[in-house]
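Task card 7
Instruction: Convert sequence to structure tokens.
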Amino acid sequence: MLADTVLILFISVATALLSEGITYLLVYRTDKFKKLTAEVEKDSKKLEKRKENISDLPRQGGGQKKKMERVEEKLKKS
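Output:
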């Protein structure tokens, strides 16, 4: 009974490690993924900067708000 439990745990851990290794090789190492990750980080920083600038101003300009919404949409698409 205990041996079966240990065997099941070993198989599940081995399968999880194998699947993560394959995912790393096929997805995370690609240039497309790295480029997309860098783009998301850049857009996130840009969005935070715009939010800080808008909160500093007493009145929000319509143009600033629209620009911020466009950056948010681009971030969602990424």
